[in-house]
Amino acid sequence: MSTPQDSRKRDNTHVARLVVFVAAVILLVWFVIGNAHSVKVEFWVTSAQTSLIAVILVSAALGALISLLMVRRKR
User: Fold this and answer.
1) Could you identify which of 16, 52, 62, 63 might form a hypothetical disulfide with 35, taking C-beta atoms 3.0 to 4.6 angstroms apart as the criterion?
2) Does this model's pTM top 0.70?
């Protein structure tokens, strides 16, 4: 049976995760805005000219996906 104390612990954990997530998004947006110029991206056999914003966002999305997959694997 769940006690009110357990419920508060879960709420505090949820709030802490939300705060960390919001802080990470704010830092990401700040970093993207500060790096809006164009860059050359080298791949194994080719290269492309793209905005640094796209590179940062794709990297962040891939990092989030890898983190999500790692967390799900542990369960």
Assistant:
1) 52
2) no
What are 25-66's pLDDT values in tens digits?
Answer: 899 788 878 877 899 999 889 999 998 888 888 888 999 899
Q: Which amino acid makes up residue 54?
A: A
* Structural domain spans, the chain: 1-34, 36-75
Q: Tokens 């050359």, residue?
A: 40
SS (H, E, C) 2-69: CCHHHHHHHHHHHHHHHHHHHHHHHHHHHHHHHCCCEEEEECCCCEEEEEHHHHHHHHHHHHHHHHHH
Cα 67 off chain centre by: 9
Q: How many CB atoms lie within 10 A of CB 60?
A: 15
